[in-house]
Structure formats: C-alpha cells, structure tokens
Amino acid sequence: MDELTSLRGLYPEPAPPTPPVTQRHRETLMTLIAEAEQNLNDRRPPVRRKRRAATLVAVPALVGLLAAAGWATLRRDATEAAAFACVGEDVTTILPNDGTPPVEACKALWEAGRMDAGRIAAPPLAACVSDGGTIEVIIAESDSACDAGGMGKWTGQDDYAVVGAAVREARVSLHDRYQATGNGCATVQDWQERLAPRLVDAGWTFEIDRVEPDRRCFDVGYLEPVKKRIVLIGVPGDFSISCDPRTGC
C-alpha cells in the first residue's frame, strides 16, 4: 500500500454538502408533481391536458399530497390545505394557501400572463377536489368540468381560508425575526406561539413529526381543515421557515 492510499484511508473524502431546506422541499415536490402528471395522463380523459411544465410559487414544505393518485370517490371537501394547483393547458402552478380563495388567486396568475403562453385573460375557472383531498383550479369548459376531470366540485370551506391566512402571518413573523436576528430555526414553540392564538380556540390541534429524534427546527408540513390538524415536520439543519410569502422562494 503506497503512501497516498494510506492517507486516503485515514482521511476519507467528505460527504457532499446538504442542499438548502427550501431546495430539498422544491425538489421533493417537483418529483411528486411529475408522478401526479403521469397519473393524470393515465387516468383522465384527454380533453384538455397537454401540460409541459410545473411551476412552484412560494410553496410551503412537503406538500406531498398534491401528488395523490386514484379517482374512485369524488370528494367535496379539501382535506389538505397547505397548497393548491392552478392548472392550465401548458403549465401547472402550485400556490400556497395564504387565505386567498383559490379561484381568485389562480385568476390573478392568468391575468398576469403567468400561466399559458400568450394568454393574459383568465378563462372560466372551477375549483375541484382531487381524490387526494387537494384543490385543483382548472379551466371550466362547462359546469361539469370537475366531474369530467374525475374530481369533485369544491364549494368552499371556512377553515381552509382561516388556516391559510394564519400560516402566512406566522411565516411573515418568522422571516422578520430571521432578518433581524439571523435565527432561521423555527421550533415547535415558535410555530405554536404564532398559530395557536388564531386557531386553537377554533378547535385546531398540532401534531409533531420530528422525522429523526435530533431535529429541533420545524416547518408546516400538512394542514387538514376537516380534522383541524396542523402537522409540523422536523427538518435537518438550522433553517426551517421555507419561503417568505411576500417574496417567494
């Protein structure tokens, strides 16, 4: 064994650095969306889908339920309220739930020219609930657009807007703290202090998923308006507050 080989044995090559938490969240969600796109192509009638890309706009952490599969039962209530999808012919954009009605938020994207290329007028839109319990705002060519897409028509839920607005306010507060102090680690206590005053009296509860025992920083993982449950997910490292709602990622 030569000297170089001996040194390599004593000092192995370091592991590559861990990507930033927002990058990991984004990559995870992009993978899930790609799987969902394949599922949509396999299961839905070919009436309007020719989506080429998916865009993420200020997405909260781990919104994995947007990729749920299966269409056997048409839901009418959303069971996951962290984010929703604006669906065009060419692109799907994922938006965080910040309390703005999903159709209104997606309409603003269309009118800003951020959906299908060359279109700056919003088409008729409808909010549908997928079998996975998430909302998709689609082009409504008829009153039966949701049914034609294998989804239930969403008629609105008060708790959906309430929890979205509360989480947005908490994120803004945590980002302001980060700018002032450099502390980007949101603990369970940090989230509870900011969310509890608006939600606990209304019956919302917290569930903590550390993922690994030593994780001390958390982000909002899932929001379940039917069960009124907020799931806080432990993330590795010392930064966990995801995107600033005022500027995006």
Structural features, described:
There is one protein chain. This protein is of the alpha/beta class and 249 residues long. It has 2 domains: 21-156, no CATH class; 159-235, no CATH class. The protein contains 6 helices and 9 strands. The chain starts with a helix and ends in a 14-residue tail after the last strand. Residues 3-53 and 58-73 have low confidence and may be disordered.
Task: Write the topology of this structure.
Elements: H1 3-10, H2 21-43, E1 53-56, E2 83-87, E3 91-96, H3 102-111, E4 125-129, E5 135-139, H4 145-148, E6 152-153, H5 158-181, H6 188-199, E7 205-209, E8 217-224, E9 229-235
Parallel strand pairs: 1-3, 2-5, 7-9
Antiparallel strand pairs: 2-3, 4-5, 4-6, 8-9
Largest sheet: 6 strands, mixed
Number of strands: 9
State the share of residues found in helices, binned by percent. Answer: 25-40%
Low-confidence residue ranges: 3-53, 58-73
Q: What is the percentage of strand-forming residues?
A: 15-25%
Radius of gyration, taken over Cα atoms and rounded to an integer in Å: 20 Å
How many domains is the backbone divided into? 2
Q: What is the rounded distance between the termini?
A: 50 Å
Globally, the shape reads globular
Number of helices: 6
**Average pLDDT rating:** 78
- What order do the SSEs take from the amino end to the carboxyl end, as H and E? HHEEEHEEHEHHEEE
Class computed from helices, strands and strand pairing: alpha/beta
Q: What spatial order of strands do you see in the largest sheet? A: 1-3-2-5-4-6
